[in-house]
Amino acid sequence: MKRRLALIALACLPLASLHAEEKPAATTDKVRLKTNQGDILIELNREKAPVTVENFLGYVKKKHYDGTVFHRVIDGFMIQGGGFTKTDSGLVEKTAGTPIKNEGQNGLKNLRGTIAMARTSDPNSAKAQFFINVANNAALDYPSNGGYAVFGKVVQGMEVVDKIKAVPTGTARLSMLHPQTGEKLTMPAGDVPNEAVVIVSATAE
């Protein structure tokens, strides 16, 4: 009798309850950076870096990255972009939004092929600029200066990243706003590709 009652109770449960352990597949955010050197497909980690991913996707949707360049390229370290356009007079900073909370403590490491936010020495100063690690950069991981927040990884096009890291670099004139005062600054900058490495477009997939 007890067994029969148990079977009846089980039969009365909603179908969803019978499959409580089955969860829908998590959606994955991906962004394709189309550059003049080839395409780079990035998989974003919203679970570990929700604030950073939302911020990055916001700039993608606003087309902020279209036409910007990888303005700082250091073989054996990283390639940095998303903040400047190149003009005849040099690099000009593109206006970005407000800084975001640093998620450098999320447990993701600055390993080769990961993407992280670029910022000043202030951990909570990241806006639009990002970098792709071309080596394992443990010195950028938490707790060092709050950590540089990794928020995804390259899943296609690492050969394009390696092509970019090897381009010849030199010095260029850089125009930007002081991150604290807003004063316009003009200065020479090193590690700038001699031929512009352009992000033609950034699109969510």
Named CATH topology:
Cyclophilin
What would you give as the CATH superfamily? Answer: Cyclophilin-like
Percent helix: 10-25%
- So, CATH architecture? Beta Barrel
Extract low-pLDDT stretches. Answer: 1-26
Q: Mind summarizing the main beta sheet?
A: 11 strands, mixed
- Gyration radius, rounded: 22 Å
Indicate the CATH class: Mainly Beta
Distance between the termini: 56 Å
Structural class: alpha+beta
Write the layout of secondary structure elements.
Layout: H1 2-11, H2 15-18, E1 29-35, E2 38-44, H3 50-61, E3 69-74, E4 78-87, E5 90-93, E6 114-117, E7 130-133, E8 150-156, H4 158-165, E9 169-177, E10 184-193, E11 199-204
Parallel strand pairs: 5-9
Antiparallel strand pairs: 1-2, 1-11, 2-8, 3-4, 4-5, 4-7, 6-7, 6-8, 9-10
